Amino acid sequence: MSSPLVHAFFVGRALAEALTEQASNLASTLVSEAGKFDAEQRDRLRQFTETVLEKANREAAQASQGRSYAADGAGEDLQALIDDLRAEIAQLRTELQRYRSRSGI
After folding, report:
1. Which helix (H) or strand (E) element contains residue 2?
2. What are the pLDDT digits (tens) for 38-93?
3. 43-72 burial by CB neighbour count: b if 16+ within 10 A, else e?
4. What is the dihedral of CA 50, 55, 57, 63, to 10 degrees?
5. Domain residues of the chain, as ranges?
6. How far is C-alpha 2 from the geometric centre of its chain's CA atoms?
7. Residues 6 or more apart from 7 whose CB is under 8 A from it?
8. Which of helix, strand or coil describes residue 48?
9. pTM, to two decimals
C-alpha cells in the first residue's frame, strides 16, 4: 500500500460490495418469504373452500333425504315442525321487542 488514500479507496469499495451483497441477500429472503406466505394463504383458502363445499354437499344430501322422507307420508310431522318453527319465531320476535324496548334501540 503506497498511501492511506489508496487504502481507504479499497476499504470503501470492499464495504460497498459487502453492503450490496447483504442487501441482495435480504431482498431475496424477503421475496422468498413473501412467496411462501402467499402459497400458504392460497393453500389455506383452498382447504377452507373444500371444507365448506363438503359440508354444503353433506347438508344438501341430508336435506334431500329429509324431503324424500316427508314425501313418503310424513306430511303431518312436517306440518308440526313448521308450526313449532313458527311458534319459535314468534317467541324470538317477542324477546327481540323486549330487548329493544329495554335498550332504547
Report:
1. none
2. 999 999 999 999 999 999 999 988 888 866 555 555 567 888 899 999 999 999 99
3. eeeeeeeeeeeeeeeeeeeeeeeeeeeeee
4. -170
5. 1-72, 74-105
6. 65
7. 1
8. helix
9. 0.45
